[in-house]
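Sequence in, structure out. Go.
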Amino acid sequence: MGRSILKNDELLQARLSRIQLQLRWQVARLGNVGKIGVGLFVVAAIFFVAAVLPQDTELEELKERAETIQYNAQQTPGETETVKKVSGDQALQIFYEFFPRMDSSPFWIRELVRVAKQQGVEINSSDFRLTIEQGARLARYEMILPVRGGYPQIRAFIADALEAVPAMAIVGIAIKRDNVQSVQLEARFEINLYLDE
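Output:
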């Protein structure tokens, strides 16, 4: 019994060594181009398993969500009908209600100053001008806002200011630096704040 187990082990090792020799011989026959081709095939298979298959699963989940949303939309037709019933005048009124009243302009300027202080940006003297065009319902409060600070602080100021003052638009930016080593920038923003009369 013990001898037969040893004999089976020897046979198995002999087969494995023969397979190993055949693999070496086949790899040697491939040459450099063949080896590169096999390597690319292995890399493609790894990429498929690691990148494509997970995306396929995510795509299926997105399809299921889209089908659920589409099903829910078909089940509640009353809601879409109410949206369609808004007339053009009502939609225009809803649009104008988004903009703050003209008398609230000091509040929005204080918001800009607050955001600048919060981000560590220094505001220099500013120019303000109110423009009311004839026949237009919205007034435009034009501001030229020179600021000084580091690039990350100025960028954070822009992002926070646009979020804090949603009726504001930046229409022009000029940025300069004293020299290459300077971390402080001087920026000049041209800002329009749109107000409802």
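Check: DSSP finds five helices and five strands in the chain. The longest helix spans residues 2-75.
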